[in-house]
Amino acid sequence: DSQANTTESLPIDMSEVASRGVYEVLNRDLNVAQAVRNLDANFDLLPSHIKLAKLEPMLNGAVDAYRLKDALAEVDTDYVVIDCPPSLGPLTQNALIAASHVIIPVKPAYFGLSAVSDFLETCEQVKRRLNPSLKITGILITQYDPRTKLAQDVTAELRQRYGDLLFKTHIQTNIRLDEATSAKLSIFSYDPKSSGAANYASFVDEVLARG
After folding, report:
1. Confidence of residue 114 (pLDDT cuts 50, 70, 90)
2. What pLDDT band is residue 172 in, cutting at 50, 70 and 90?
3. How many CB atoms lie within 10 A of CB 43?
4. Contact (Cβ atoms closer than 8 angstroms) between residue 84 and residue 119
5. Which residues pair with 138 in a beta bridge?
6. Within its chain, how far is the Cα of 41 from the centroid?
7. Mean pLDDT computed over 102-115
8. What's residue 165's pLDDT?
9. Is 0.70 topped by the overall pTM?
């Protein structure tokens, strides 16, 4: 994602990212090994930068749609998690072609319903034409406040429409999650006993159980 929120929430020097990150990989100036950063024993990051937005208008046609998949072919790791832009443009298409599974996060608000429907339609198009093995792992409700009727109603509507595709776990609003992001730490390092950490641990268990 060219907004680079994931990158900025991690302990990394953003001045270095400007010349060595996913932009250079997709622009074919560097390979993944040259751009990736090792942040701890179990976690590597291919960082993003706002200048990635400049590349998107230049990605056209079937060949460009496979740039990320081609770049990640050299990666040997258990899991690759791709943070997509909030739009359905060429960068998201690259991600969907490179991915094996998709998790759809949604805020329980009115426009979240149409956003999920639009994204699922895009996934089906990509699966039909470009990536037959693509699977929808599930829909994850985030920023959930159980005290509001809107959140309850939207969640009920999503459950009615998509059934078991909706994860049982909801990521509830929790100030500790925002604090962890500001501190550039995972919630499991920042406050492992918080409700935010419990929510994400439960979510990860569900993802692994779904395969």
Report:
1. confident
2. very high
3. 12
4. no
5. 103
6. 21
7. 91
8. 96
9. yes
- Distance between CA atoms of 102 and 85, rounded to whole angstroms? 13
pLDDT tens track for 115-127: 999 999 999 999 9
- Beta-carbon contacts of 197 under 8 Å, excluding residues fewer than 6 positions away, are 176, 187, 188, 191
Q: Residue 68 belongs to what H/E stretch?
A: helix 67-72
Tokens of 83: 């943070």
Burial of 4 (0-12, 13-18, 19+ CB in 10 A): buried
Average pLDDT, the chain: 93
The identity of residue 36, as a single letter, is V
Tokens of 145: 């406040």
At 137 the three-state DSSP class reads strand
β-partners of residue 114 are none
4 pLDDT higher than 80: yes
Taking the C-alpha atoms of residue 34 and residue 25, their distance in angstroms, rounded to an integer, is 9
Give residue 170's Cα distance to chain centre.
Answer: 16
3-state secondary structure 138-171: EEEEEEECCCCHHHHHHHHHHHHHHHHHEEEEEE
Strands 135-144 and 166-172: parallel
73 vs 19: CA distance, rounded Å: 22
**What's the Cα-to-Cα distance from 110 to each of 140, 153, 160, rounded to whole Å?**
15, 9, 15
